[in-house]
Write a structure and sequence with these properties.
heterotetramer, A: mainly alpha, Serine Threonine Protein Phosphatase 5, Tetratricopeptide repeat, 9 helices, globular, B: Rossmann fold, Hypothetical Protein Tm841, Chain: A,domain 3, 2 domains, six-stranded mixed sheet, about 35% helix, binds adenosine-5'-diphosphate, binds magnesium ion, kinase (chains A, D), Dihydroxyacetone_Kinase (chains A, D)
Chain lengths: ~220, ~325, ~325, ~220
């Protein structure tokens, strides 16, 4: 069941994200425990619970961009840590890139992912290979853009992004961290997936599933 | 996990509430968004000093709010930096017209959240300067990393910057002396046993009965490497050596020394470490002008200690000795 | 056993040595036989206050040596009361001609050793009076037992007697106010995990992940009974109830409250306990006039806390508020 | 090989005590750990090591009483806790009861044990059945007196005392402590032998063995 990327999709995406983040709270805490400070799952769960509470309470925002902007502001004020500002910026830039469109087409979907990714890089200054969420967002962006230029449907663009993010997250395992808290471990950071890269894959997978997309 | 807590998610709120009741003569707790200010904030004409970061490091930062130290502390969730929507009102609340200094420990999360808050507070008309504390010699300082962490040196920066602000220095002056402390302070830590983050419920790392972690931070993260257990004198040497090397401490240097407990270490052990530090520095011809021995910047109930050394000059010493009245540090007042 | 120590038998000597270096402005350490005095002892014309007991309870007692509190502290081996040959010279060293008060925690060993020392010091011409602290409501007080133990109340006795001595009260006056504090103070403790005595090398008792010990002392001894783990609010109620009952606290009463950490408990948890104590006392109409929250009388690295409540009057409060300058308690000086 | 209870015997007794206390240090700590504060073995080991050091260093005292008096003073100043003053008093009273005799006969041996026992009771105010060292000293005293009046040799008096002390120590196991640190445990103190009663048995056994006595 393929869905248009409209405001309802954006709301579904965010609710689905909250659900999978809650479901994977312990996993994300545990990934962060090994090479960080054991809070990533707790932080995101707190943040996306607040996001859902806001969706439940307020008037539904009128555009996909308005949904994402509300998410950005809520994450910024409830998550804290590194992930709060990074995901906050990502959703804010994503919202900005969508403008006031009521529906997101394939090119706009790819552009949205790039905007999010570029926002994270602008704030966090991490490069590909530093073992951060950038290692999931970057291949996601590239795959989304490739799919969009090849004429994929919007849901297909999101599915491509999600699959690439997932692969990117898995590929962080052997890396030695050079940014974020895991970098303090030096070589001991190798051998574990980066929690932020894994949560990125979850978020993009939620976007895809909210669009009815199939994720491999 | 056994802790004297109720709901793990209420730990910070309830603890700060208790702190506020116990120290109602000194501080005011603002519950939502959560931050703590001096009872008499804002002090007109004085530079305001704000610090904050993840909780779990008590008495840092709330325990250092009061005359001669911080005007506001902003506690995040356990080991999670606070958000801009806490930092911004804390900043405004302590602006007495002379601007506000943010003392930020160098962690990605703290840096990003304080950066955003500073930008927004400036937009609201508050002049903000920031100083970044990065004193942990266990971490490599390079362009290609997140840089050194801020640990024990934060206590010295907060005290000395707070004293300068109390003296009436302007914002640039306070920021400059804070930066001088950052430049002259280095730390190194060791863990004998990990802590357990309340919402995680399991120890942050596992150590065998005969292993210790060298070069740990204050967030329960593992250290740089793991070695076989040693006696206190041996461990102290391992903490001291990299600090002496990094600061190039030499005969005639004068220092401020802190032997800090990570939360679960008895005072008696900290004094055994301090004894060895004193002996070793004495052997190098380095003078300990002042010292702190106790729990000042902790990692929940972690067992272990950290050593912090600041090379001081007369001005810093004078600022150090000036009156301070906070829950955790008090003299002359 | 993992501790920041060298030879387990040198723990007390080395720790006190480090303490002496860190606080050389306040105290003098006399190494053999071991005792600690105020830097300026004896203070002519002032009643001298001596306390002591087994080590492992730091900052008690050495951390309370200084103006407005103790003139001398006499540390025994870990959890072992000191010997007369330490107590006698400590007593003489702080006799400024107005006599000396011994503050003794009620344990057979402490009582016998201080008794002998007092007798011998008297034979040497020093007038000695003694006060016995026995505030632990976990222990049955009866003619047929050793009586209640001295625990947290000791801190209040040392502070208030020390203040009275500093004010210039004579020996009987100081002893009387000390006795009034003893009469009005009660304590109760809980352990979440045991401590390990250095020379024993194994934990003093074993607790399962879901068990706690209620009614513990400060020597790693098991408590009165073992219960399933509860949340902080529930545990706090269990600490408070027997104290309230024993002191017959009622609406309108004014109190001094200490929430004390046993050595391995983070400050954040102590404030969560304090929050509940404040709520419960408020519900009873009992006022908290002053409070202490922190590690004041510990059992090595034991995890847990104790609650101490003293019913105060105006005189005790005035004495409490007067200047005190020790390593672990300081205000007004 | 039965020996006269002369000064040499007193020195042998004390050295043998130091040896068995060191040998049983961990046992005594462990008994005290369960119902006390885990220091009894450490305290006695520290004290008797100091006693031996003094014997090694100084001129040999001239009488059994002089030996025991030196032991008393050394224990008093090195052991601390409850055991220091109690054993200190015991050895002091024992010394006093011997006067300046060069050799201890059977009646004097029994009187010495009674003096020690009465000293402990005078200082510690414990009664039989309170689960303290008094529960070893009291039967030891009675057995010694019975043996002496029945015409036993001095070594036989000591052997009787040692055997009774040992039985008394074993019999403390089911008791509920009413004195000393174990009393804080209330009923939980039952089921474990009292450390001071056990060390008493060791001390009296050393006295007997130093006299060439056989201990059952
Ligand atoms: N400089 C950075 N750039 C991009 N991502 C980063 C950076 N620093 C950290 N991260 C991401 O943030 C994640 C950690 O988030 P979280 O645990 O919530 O914050 P904190 O590290 O403050 O505890 C890491 O797994 C990593 O993916
Ligand atoms: N009042 C008393 N009378 C006789 N013996 C006592 C008394 N109190 C304690 N003891 C003895 O002392 C022993 C404990 O000695 P020790 O552990 O060295 O001292 P502490 O109890 O001070 O730690 C107990 O096992 C008991 O036999
Ligand atoms: Mg984290
Ligand atoms: Mg964090
Ligand atoms: Mg003892
Ligand atoms: Mg004992």
């Amino acid at each position: 069941m393929v869905q248009p990327l409209d405001t309802a999709w954006a709301v579904r995406w965010i609710r689905e994200t909250a659900r999978v983040v809650a479901e994977n709270r312990a996993l994300l805490i545990d990934l962060d425990r090994v090479i960080g400070d054991a809070d990533h799952g707790e932080n995101l769960d707190r943040g996306f619970s607040a996001v859902v509470a806001k969706l439940d309470a307020g008037d539904a925002p009128g555009t996909p961009a308005a949904v994402l902007k509300q998410v950005a502001m809520t994450l910024m004020s409830t998550v804290g840590g590194a992930a709060g500002p990074l995901y906050g910026t990502a959703f804010l830039r994503a919202a900005t890139s969508l403008g006031d469109a009521g529906e997101v087409d394939a090119a706009a979907a790819a552009a949205m992912i790039r905007a999010a990714r570029d926002g994270i890089v602008a704030r966090g200054k991490a490069e590909v290979g530093d073992k951060t969420m950038v290692d999931a967002w970057t291949p996601a962006t590239e795959s989304a853009e490739t799919a969009a230029s090849a004429g994929a449907t919007p849901p297909e663009v999101l599915a491509a992004a999600a699959n690439a993010a997932h692969a990117g997250a898995v590929a962080t395992e052997p890396l030695i961290a050079r940014k974020g808290r895991a970098s303090y471990l030096g070589e001991r950071s190798a051998g574990h997936q980066d929690p932020g890269a894994v949560s990125t894959a979850l978020i993009l997978q939620a976007a895809s599933e909210a669009a009815g997309g199939e994720v491999a | 996990m056994k802790k004297l807590i109720n709901d793990p998610r209420a730990v910070v709120d309830e603890s700060v509430e208790g702190f506020g009741i116990a120290h109602a003569d000194l501080v005011a707790v603002h519950p939502d968004p959560l931050f703590i200010t001096r009872r008499d904030a804002p002090v007109q004409g004085k530079v305001g000093i704000v610090s904050g970061g993840g909780s779990g490091h008590e008495p840092l930062h709330a325990g250092f709010v009061g005359r001669g130290m911080l005007d506001a502390a902003v506690p995040g969730a356990v080991f999670t930096s606070p958000t801009p929507d806490q930092i911004i009102p804390a900043t405004s609340a302590v602006d007495g017209g002379a601007g506000v200094l943010h003392i930020v420990k160098n962690y990605t999360g703290d840096v990003l959240n304080f950066e955003t808050a500073a930008e927004m507070a400036e937009a609201d008309g508050v002049t903000v300067r920031s100083v970044l504390v990065d004193d942990d010699v266990a971490v490599e300082d390079s362009l290609y990393t997140a840089g050194r962490r801020g640990v024990g040196g934060t206590v010295f920066v907060e005290r000395i910057a707070g004293a300068a602000a109390e003296r009436g220095d302007d914002l640039d002056g306070v920021a400059d002396v804070a930066q001088r402390v950052v430049d002259g302070v280095r730390s190194m830590g060791v863990a004998l046993a990990a802590c357990t983050v309340p919402h995680a419920g399991v120890p942050s790392f596992d150590l065998a009965e005969d292993e210790i972690e060298i070069g740990i931070g204050i967030h329960g993260e593992p250290g740089r490497h793991r070695i076989a257990m040693e006696d206190a004198d041996g461990i102290t040497q391992r903490l001291l050596d990299p600090i002496v090397a990094d600061l190039r401490l030499a005969s005639g240097d004068r220092t401020l020394v802190m032997v800090n407990g990570m939360g679960g270490t008895p005072a008696s052990e900290l004094y055994i470490v301090f004894r060895k530090v004193a002996q070793l520095l004495d052997g190098l011809g380095v003078t300990i002008e002042r010292s702190l021995v106790g729990n000042y910047i902790t990692a929940l109930e972690m067992q272990g200690a950290s050593l912090t050394i600041l090379r001081v000059d007369d001005e810093m010493l004078e600022l150090w000795d000036s009156p301070v009245h906070t829950a955790a540090l008090r003299w002359g007042a």
